[in-house]
Design brief:
single chain, four-stranded antiparallel β-sheet, 115 residues, seven-stranded mixed β-sheet, 0% helix
């Protein structure tokens, strides 16, 4: 079955950086659209970024210019480099894989940005 395992969350001060990673298995990784979503306390889950198998990327306006999504099709991994973090970036970050009309989710990793 499809498994997505996130890592790299933690506590960071405002202005700092973190790199999240997601290891995927059980799917045709090269054909999957990989993405990241986040959910802040008391808020709805929201889209952060996505990347296709041919490296086309899309970002939410709130992270554009600060976050970078990248994938390694040989290692079946997708990363999210987060720079210039703000307290409002605090959330649980989820890795997603869209393949054959289904979106799979990881269990999430917590990112906390202190002011």
């Amino acid at each position: 079955q499809v498994q997505l395992v996130e890592s790299g969350g933690g506590l960071v001060q405002a202005g700092g950086s973190l790199r999240l990673s997601c290891a995927a298995s059980g799917l045709n990784f090269r054909s999957a659209v990989m993405g990241w979503f986040r959910q802040a306390p008391g808020e709805e889950r929201e889209f952060v970024a996505q990347i296709t198998g041919i490296m086309n990327t899309v970002y939410s306006d709130s992270v554009k210019g600060r976050f970078t999504i990248a994938r390694d099709n040989a290692k079946n991994t997708v990363d999210l480099q987060m720079n210039t973090l703000k307290p409002e970036d605090t959330a649980v970050y989820y890795c997603t894989a869209d393949t054959f009309g289904t979106r799979y989710w990881g269990v999430g990793t917590l990112v906390t940005v202190s002011s």
